[in-house]
Amino acid sequence: MVTILVVEDTPSEKELLSLYLQDGGYQIIQAENGKEALEKAINNKPDLIISDVVMPEMSGLELCRNIRKSSATQKIPIILCTSKNQEIDRIWGMKQGATAYVTKPYTKEEMLNTVKTIIK
Q1: Domain span at residue 8?
Q2: What is the b/e burial string over 33-70, where b = at least 16 CB atoms within 10 angstroms of the residue's CB?
C-alpha cells in the first residue's frame, strides 16, 4: 500500500486532506509541522509527502530543502499544498525541491489526480 505523509498545521485541513487520500486508497501518516515531518520521513520512508508551506517551526519550503539534502529521503516526491497562489510562489516552491504545487482550495479529484500522476 502507498503511504503518504500529510504535513499540515491546521487540524481541519489535515483531516480533510487525509480523508480524501484515505478514500483514494492510501495509507496516511500525519505531521503538524516541517520539523515533525522530517523525523517521520526519515523513520517511515513514505512514498509521497504532501506539505503546507506556511507552518510553525519549519516551513514547507525548509522541509523540501531538508528532504532533498538527506540521502535517506531525497528521492521522496513532495507536493506543496498552499494558499500561496502567485506564479512566483509556485516557481520558488519547485526550485526548493517540490515535485508538484497545488493551491488551496483544491478539489478531492484535483488532489487525487496529482497524487496518481506522481505515484505511477
Answers
A1: 3-119
A2: bbbbbbebbeeeebbbbbbbbebeebbbbbbbebbeee
What total number of domains does the chain contain? 1
Helix axes 34-44, 60-69, angle to 10 degrees: 30
Question: What is the CATH number for 63?
Answer: 3.40.50.2300
Q: How far apart are CA 77 and CA 46, in angstroms?
A: 9
Question: What is the model's pTM?
Answer: 0.96
Tens of pLDDT along the chain (120 residues) come to 999 999 999 999 999 999 999 999 999 999 999 999 999 999 999 999 999 999 999 999 999 999 999 999 999 999 999 999 999 999 999 999 999 999 999 999 999 999 999 998
Distance from C-alpha of 63 to C-alpha of 79, rounded to nearest angstrom? 11
CA 58, 62, 67, 71 torsion-angle sign: negative
